Amino acid sequence: MSFGPPPSPFTQSVKVAEERVRRRKVLRGVCFLAFAVILGAGGWYVWPNSSQAPSAQEGKAPAKAAPEAIRETVEDPPKGGVGHVESAVIERGLEPGKYLVTPGMWATKKVLVKGRQSSLVAVNIADGSDAWTRDLGSDICAITQDVTNDGRTAVMVKDPEGDHLCNQLVMFRIGTGAKLWQVKVPVKRGFFSEPTRMTMTQGVVVTSWNEGSAGSDMSTGKTLWQRGRTKQCHDGGFVGGQSLLLRYDCFDEKSQQDHYRVQKLDPGTGAVEWTYKVASGVKFAYLLSSQPAVLAVAAGDYDVTNLISLDGRGKYRAGIRMEGDHYNVECDPDSVDGCTGALVANDQVFVTSGDSSEEPGNNTNWIVTFDLATGKSGFKFDAGEDQQISLLRVSGDRVLALKNGTDTIAPNSLVSLDPKSGKQRTYFYFTIPSGMHGYGAGEVAVEHGRIFFGNQQWRGSGKKGMPEAKWLAYAVGRAA
């Protein structure tokens, strides 16, 4: 998953994050209300997009699927009922006033894995006992939510020597914590400091930074290809999954404007297969999905104005207007894939609406499907009174979503949305104690009938020498 430019999300203070969000609110002229209490509020994100579904875990894989392919697991049909917290990764030694960054969360049927500063820790979901711990030797500085069919994923850590660049790529197995390899990526510090980003696709781990990008063989870590920047253009960032898409950013000195191109690359060679030129005048462009290729563009300051689908040759296919504030697709201008409120599933895109009420504690919203071939709308999925609904990931021919109660009565629930029938079904209802909420924007994943929540930043509390325990990540499952 990608993170925005400095200050790094792994060193950014809550104060800076809140100020950044405040400036964006002023520019937009509107006030945003955090839609999910349990996901926290912060200035950086690890959210799912269409090609980086937060399944990112071991589970059911398609028959005869390649081991190095990115997994797209399918959940069993909903059964209804009540859910409860099953297990958690807990930090007990964070002194009052100290900050702890905990990026990354992955899970299997048996273990829950959490990034913690310079290590990876895992607990057994069945009883909450320690499963394994892997010391990485240096702070985690970039992650991806992608996981292969055989249970591998990767993180970036800082070089413990020199100028501490984010250039150490580590591949590990999430079930056991076994480190498979570690290599140095040719990251170079440019005029503008920018964190390293990463994604995975078809046997290749792709990393990018302000001065270039590289593809590394997933089996050995060997560098397969490398790209550098030119005087006017550089690699803005990638989206992986089934395919590899690049946003290629160029600056026209004459017009003093940014111009964007979307390119499909061969993962093994880095060769460009096709290029789509985004219309001039677009201020920001984001990648929602790699296959099918779907973009979100902003013709104004920050607000997304249109979604654009492309065909298999990179040609314009259809457009969907966001109709001002009617739909709530929000993107981080500092991240190529940092969008919430839109999820691509097969040949449709699910889009979240804006709030239907501005009364505190009485907000609701809905989700609408759009056909990527025609741009026409389809089914509408209502959140319900005193609830809000947010998209999570694709699960086979359905989409998983989270519903949050916006008052003190309505519970949360994990639901399945069927784009063929327009029906939604509930896996289970649940509540989360307030003490589990962190300071950073949250990670959410669904796997093997459970929903997992992770916090990426914590501030210590309690008394000196007697710190309060912090919930870094936890699993919620259906009660038997």
Describe it for me?
There is one protein chain. It contains 1 helix and 38 strands. The protein is mainly β and 480 residues long. The protein has one domain (14-478): Methylamine Dehydrogenase, Chain H (7 Propeller). The chain starts with 13 loop residues before the first helix and ends with a strand.
Which whole number gives the mean pLDDT?
84
Radius of gyration: 21 Å
Order of strands across the widest beta sheet? Answer: 1-38-34-33
CATH architecture: 7 Propeller
Task: Please estimate the helix content.
Answer: under 10%
Based on CA inertia axes, which overall geometry fits?
globular
Which class best fits the helix and strand makeup? mainly beta
Q: With helices defined by DSSP (H or I, 4 residues minimum), what is the helix count?
A: 1
At the fold tier of CATH, the topology name is Methylamine Dehydrogenase, Chain H
- Proportion of residues in extended strands: over 45%
List the uncertain runs. Answer: 1-62
- Would you report the number of β strands? 38
Total domains: 1
Terminal CA distance? 34 Å
Could you give a short account of the major beta sheet? 4 strands, antiparallel
The CATH class is Mainly Beta
